[in-house]
């Protein structure tokens, strides 16, 4: 009987000691996965800009869709808020970023558009709230409004 009690006590102590390391690993995994999602959106924007010509009529504009998957499961930290926001870059150009908050933490931002993209990125009616669990689909259109602009909207 004493062996069982001691075994349970040791197991509880080991679990309690390992919890901070497990939480750090979950946060790191969530950061990495959201970095991958921002890369996916960046590649979609780059492909749209490099393979198409901007036009002034949005209904005729080149377009593509991209899906953002919020990390979930045992290996990911719980996300309290996830949004696509517009950010200021050098000069008058603007870009986009994923802004998220892991429960109980501070806001974190992962930039999406690099300096290599020759178009301005505009988040229409932004910031765009994204699902913190599951998938959110975005529509990207390349329009000409005094220069090439990639307009991003959420598909419901």
TrEMBL record:
InterPro entries documented for this protein: DUF7311
Pfam family membership, one: DUF7311
Residues in DUF7311 domain copies: 1-153
Domain of life (superkingdom): Archaea
The protein, known as: DUF7311 domain-containing protein
Organism: Halorubrum lacusprofundi (strain ATCC 49239 / DSM 5036 / JCM 8891 / ACAM 34)
């Amino acid at each position: 009987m004493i062996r069982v009690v001691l075994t349970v006590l040791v197991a509880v102590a080991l679990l309690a000691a390992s919890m901070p390391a497990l939480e750090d690993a979950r946060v790191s995994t969530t950061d990495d996965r959201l970095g991958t999602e921002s890369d996916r959106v960046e590649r979609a924007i780059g492909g749209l800009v490099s393979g198409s010509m901007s036009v002034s009529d949005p209904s005729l504009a080149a377009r593509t869709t991209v899906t953002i998957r919020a990390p979930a499961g045992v290996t990911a930290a719980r996300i309290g808020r996830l949004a696509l926001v517009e950010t200021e870059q050098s000069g008058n150009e603007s870009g986009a970023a994923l802004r998220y908050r892991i429960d109980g933490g501070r806001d974190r931002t992962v930039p999406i558009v690099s300096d290599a993209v020759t178009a301005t990125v505009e988040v229409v009616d932004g910031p765009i709230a994204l699902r913190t669990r599951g998938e959110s689909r975005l529509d990207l259109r390349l329009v000409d409004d005094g220069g090439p602009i990639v307009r991003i909207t959420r598909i419901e």
